[in-house]
Write a structure and sequence with these properties.
mainly beta; five-stranded antiparallel sheet
């Protein structure tokens, strides 16, 4: 995870992620909610040739304000901001 996996359940966060779009611009999106779980999880990528022949991704599961639960795959361009404690 860009910061660390020390984000605990119940913490309110804002996550900004970017995808390159051309040589000089990027598409950006922001998601805000309460952390349900922060972890590294393996994918089914057999070609990764890393631990247990799987690719491990930093994942953040959060509950949005409308109740929706979403999983974010974090990379080096992800910015996770702690906002306030939800509980």
């Amino acid at each position: 995870m860009p910061q660390s996996l020390e984000i605990s359940a119940g913490t309110r966060v804002r996550v900004t992620q970017q995808l390159p779009r051309g040589a000089e611009t990027a598409w950006s999106t922001t998601t805000e909610g309460v952390v349900l779980r922060a972890r590294q999880a393996e994918t089914g990528s057999w070609f990764a040739h890393s631990r247990n022949d799987r690719l491990w991704l930093d994942r953040l599961e959060i509950q949005l304000d409308d109740g929706e639960i979403t999983t974010l795959n974090l990379d080096q361009f992800s910015v996770v901001q702690t906002l306030e404690n939800a509980g």
